[in-house]
Design a protein that fits this description.
Two copies of one chain form a homodimer.
Chain A lengths: L12 H15 L6 H8 L3 H7 L3 H25 L4 H18 L1 H7 L7 H26 L9 H13 L1 H4 L7 H14 L11
Helix pairs in contact in A: 1-2, 1-6, 4-5, 4-6, 4-7, 5-6, 5-7, 5-8, 5-10, 7-8
Chain A binds a DNA duplex through α3.
DNA sequence: CCATTAACCAACCACTCGGTCGGTAAATCA
DNA sequence: TGATTTACCGACCGAGTGGTTGGTTAATGG
């Protein structure tokens, strides 16, 4: 199946990335040294630098995987020909799935502070995603599907604040992501209150 | 009014703490050196150590201010003799006010990773607060004020995930915190959807 | 005027950091 | 077999880190 690679067998870049990201998330990016990453793989620091060109490259690769996933989700929902309200709910559900699937990468993304050029690039892509959501909320309000008494940008931020909080407590072994996506969408759109008439019965 | 202090006038510990926390939040705690903190106050590193005993002490003081605020809010709402649902909503509103008022301190708190003993102590107080919220949600469900089809711990996490997201985008000059607290409570309890019957007409 | 109090600084220290260099060990291919 | 490819390591480097030491400067109080 997998075509045997030439040369001495060992770790590849993907294994290195996964190990690094796991450490970055538990101890923090700056608090994790390249020595720590090497140790966790059972190799030396110089060997680590054989697989990767810098610490920052590891960060860049990780946040790109997260951002690519989110923008794919956005593109797929945008392609659907329904109401803006339905697309917004779809985007929430799909985003939850992306967060669950690429949990470690998204976790790192959401903690980026913008200290380097690479981090600032990631931040700017994040802001682009936020604008996209805010626009969708505004459209949903215009068509009457979403309450119009809140600023769309604020609503978008609170909505995805809820979604993004997943990285703080969700663990892959804890339940089906699709079920969780349903819970999040229900809470976001119908609210916590129980003494209300449900549209579908 | 303020009783003049003896000795050579200059910075006091509070000024140092505020400057430090501001830098910790913009660059990250580990990425900020004590030299940076000193520079931002226009003093040298050794003078900085005259006001404070260690970098970790600055962290501890900051997160304690945040946690004290949150637990005060919890104690005040717990003292009220109404329904659990009303108390939960009050806690959400009050928490938003605490976040807005002590924004920098809470921001630092929510980014603590648990690398040192002091950080682990902060994390354990955070978890205590989370349990408190989850219990309140469970009580509200039992009395029928909150939908019972979601796990109380999950609902509590999502609810405060939304509240805590404030630190990512709220800025003190942006609107009245009390209005924001109302928006958050409305979105959390009534949801985004607009095609629903409102209990109060 | 002088003791006291407090803010301040230059120089220093042991240590860790991200990253480099030159060379070796183990696999595949011809 | 021998060339090629790839993984690997020990030793090193300059820059910075949190923190210390010993001493100076400016204010207050008696």
């Amino acid at each position: 199946m997998t075509p045997r690679r030439r040369g001495r067998p060992g770790h590849d870049q993907d294994a290195v990335l996964n190990a690094a990201v796991r450490l970055f998330n538990t101890r923090g990016y700056d608090a994790t040294s390249m020595f720590d990453v090497a140790m966790s793989l059972g190799i030396t620091k110089s060997t680590l630098y054989h697989h990767v060109i810098s610490k920052e490259q590891l960060l860049t690769m990780a946040v790109d995987r997260a951002l690519d996933g989110l923008f794919e989700a956005a593109a797929e929902t945008a392609a659907q020909a329904t109401t803006a309200t339905a697309r917004l709910e779809q985007l929430v559900r799909r985003s939850v799935l992306v967060l669950a699937e690429r949990l470690e990468f998204v976790t790192l993304l959401l903690r980026v502070r913008g200290n380097t050029e690479a981090e600032q690039h990631a931040l700017s892509r994040r802001r682009e995603f936020d604008r996209l959501v805010a626009d969708l909320v505004a459209q949903a309000q215009a068509e009457g599907g979403v309450r119009a008494d809140v600023d769309p940008a604020t609503a978008a931020r609170l909505l995805f604040g809820m979604v993004n909080s997943l990285i703080e407590w969700y663990r892959p072994d804890r339940g089906d992501p699709a079920v969780l996506a349903g819970t999040v969408a229900a809470l976001a759109f119908e609210g916590l209150r129980s003494d209300r008439t449900h549209p579908n019965g």
